[in-house]
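Retro notes
What went well: the complex prediction finally ran end to end.
Inputs used:
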Amino acid sequence: MAFLEIRNLSKYFGKTVAVKDFSLEIEKGELVSLLGPSGCGKTTTLRVVAGFEVPSEGQVIIDGKDMTFTPPNQRPVGMVFQAYALFPNMTVAGNIGFGLKIAKKSKEEIEQRVREMLELIHMSGFENRYPHQLSGGQQQRVALARALALRPQVLLLDEPLSALDAKIRVALRAEIRSIQQELGITTVYVTHDQEEALSISDRVVVMNNGRIEQVGTPFQIYNFPQTEFVAQFVGTLNAVIAEVMDVKEGVLRFDGQQVYTADKLEGFRSGDRIMIAIRPERLSFANEGRKANILKGTVKNITFLGSIVRIQVKLGENIFFMDTFNNPYLALPRVGDLTEITCSKEAVLVLQRRS
Amino acid sequence: MESKSGVGVKTLQDTRQAEKGALEVRPSRAGSDWIAWLGLLPFFLFAVMFLFLPSLSIFVRSFQDRGGNFTFENIIALFTVKDIINAYRMSLTISLITAVGGGIFGFLLAYAVIMGGLPRVLRSFLLTFSGVASNFAGVPLAFAFVATMGNAGLVTRLIEQIFNINTREMGFSIYNIYGLSIVYMYFQFPLMVLIMAPALDGLRREWREACENLGGTEIHYWRYIALPILLPTILGAMILLFGNAFGAYATAYAFSGSFINLVTILIGAQIQGDVLYNPGLGNALALGMIVIMSLTMVGYVSLQRRASRWLR
C-alpha cells in the first residue's frame, strides 16, 4: 500500500479548474517531483496535501489515514516554501525549534534537536544568526531543517530553489536529495525546472492544465514521452508532422525525406499524418557512422554551448537541432554546407496522431 | 555509484563555494557619494532653519525675563506653579489616551480592512477617507464636533427631540478631557490606519502557513510571529500619535477655548499678549514640551531597538 495517496483530486477556484482528477500513489521514502509550467496545478496539488487548500473532490491519504479535511497544523507534513518563509524575528535556532516549542517539548530536547538539524544541513555555529544575515541558499537550508525538525512523515517542497541563482541551485538540489535519502523521508517536490526534476527524483509527474500527462522515472519521461506535451516540455525536441507510408515497416515521410521508426504504428493507416519527434542528441553526422535514417539538409547555424555544440540543420521546411559533444579536434561543417545527419529507428518517437 | 555521504560532502563544498560568490559585497561608488549628500542639502538647510534654530531660540529665551535679563524663574515655574503642572499632566494624559486608544482601535480597523476579507472597494474607500480625515484638524474639526455634539449641536438636539432625553441634564458634555479625546481620535484613528495598513500588507502569507505547518494556531501566529514583526511599526505609530496629540493647539483651542488646561493653550496665552503675557515662560513651557518629546523619543528608540533587534 502506498504511503501517500492522492485519489481523484480536483480543485476548482470558481469556474477555474486548477487540478482535475489527479491520482497518485507515492511509496515510503520515495521522492516524486511534480513538473509542469506555471499554472498547471502542481502547487495547488501540493497545498492540498499540506492542508492549505481543501479539495473540491478527492482524498488525501497519508499512511492509511484519510487527511483530506485534517487542518494543516495536525498533519504529519513538513513544508519548505518557495521564498523560504523563515520568521524574520527569530534566530536560526528559533526558526528550527519553533515547531518543537509549539509542541511543548522541553528546552533540552529542543536544543538537542536544533543541534542535530544544524549538523544535518552543515550549518552548526549559525544558531544565533537572523535570517537576513544569511544568504539565500543558507536560508533555504534552514527552512529545510525547520520542516524536518518535527520529524514529519511527508516532506513537501514548493519550488524551493527557484529564488536562488544557478550555481547554488545545482549544489543545493543535490544536498536536498542527499538529506532526503539519508532520512528516507517520503517527499513531494514541485518544480518547473525539468533538469531539477530529472536530476533528483525517483519518479516525475508531468502536469499540464491541472491534469497528469505522464508519470514515470526520469529516464522514462525523457526517453519515452507519451504525449506531445511531455515531449515538448521535457528537454529540447525536433518535432515534425510526418505522413505514414508503411504501417508494417514503420516508414514515414516528411519534407520529401523517408524515415523509419521502431515505434508501433498500429491503428494508423497509410496517408495518416502524425507527429514524430527526435531528440537532438540522438542525431549525429552520417560521416561518423550511418544509421537507419539518413536526413539531408543544410547547416543553418552552429552554437557553442560549452560541453556540447548545437547545430541547426534545415531539412526542407523544418529546422532540426543536433547536439554533439564538444570536441576541439573534430572538424565541424560550416554554415551553409550541405550535410547528412543520421539516427536510429528507435530515435524516431511517434507522439500523436494528427488526422 | 557515489555513496550518500560522498554526495553530501561534495555538494556542501559546491554550495559553500557558490554562496561565497553570492555573499560578495559590491564596493560602494565613493565618487558619486557627494551627489547624494548634495541632494540632502535642502533637508539639512530646512532642519537647521526651522528646527535647530527655533529650538535654540526657545532654549535661550526660556532663561530670559520680560526685560530680556537672564533668569531661572521660568524654569522653576515649570515645577512649582500648579496650573503649569496640571497643564502638563492634562496634555500628557490626553496624549497617552489618544495614542494608546487611537493606536489600538486604529490597528484593529486596519486589520479588519486589510485582513478581514472585506471587499476591495471598501478598503480603497477607507484608506482614502483615512488620508483625508488624518489631516482634518484645527478649527473645522472642532466646529464639526461642536455643531454636532455640543450643547446646541445637531445630534444633541435630535436626541432631545426624538427620545426626549436631555443629555446635559444627565451630565453628558463633550467639553472635557474625554470629549477632547474623542475629537482627537478623529484624526488619530485614520493616521494609525494609514501607517498600519502597509505594515499589515507586508505580513507574508507564507509566515502564517509555515506557522500552521509547524503545528501552530492563529494565536501562536500572532503571539510569536505577526505581533513581534509589527511591534516596531506599532510603537513608531503610537509615538507619532502621542506627538500629534501633545503638540495639538488649534483643535483644542477652537473646541474648548481655555476650558481645558493644556500646555499648548498655556503657551498661546503667554505669547499672545493679553493678561498673561510672558514670552519667557511661554518659551520655558515649549522647552518642557521639547524635553518630554525627546525623552519619549529616547524611550521609543530603546523599545524599538529591543523590538526590532532581528532587523539589525
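What we learned: The helical segments of chain A are 42-50, 92-102, 107-120, 136-149, 166-183, 194-200, 218-223, 228-233.
What to try next: split runs per interface for comparison.
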